Amino acid sequence: MSNAHQGLDASNVDPTDSYARKAFLSAKAGNLNCFDYAKFKMAEAITTVVSYEHLARAGFVSASEQSFYFDIDRLVWDQYFSILGNDAPECPWMRYEGSSRDDHIGPVSDVYQQWRQDHGLPIVGPYTQLDVPD
Known about the structure:
mainly alpha
């Protein structure tokens, strides 16, 4: 990915706030004259399903809401800007600096729990002690 597309500064965007990350992605796409809401929503829908399936295959009975949406937003960024090839801007949010991906921070993701329930997979209550797969 290229650094050719500078301009907007992500350093003032709270990396723990999914709404702020999505707003920045939209602004960045607008800045690059490639914003397409339908494409954004499609990328978000596809990466959400991929994330559900990946977590289930990896043995996660739950995921924190924060880490779930962080992963989706990073995947959406990469998918959305992939059309720019080598000129695609790098996602400004690094993966869990100083912590493990397996850390469960904050409340359990309700949407992941609902997906698991809809697919006949076991779910956990919001206050269940979680075991993280190896």
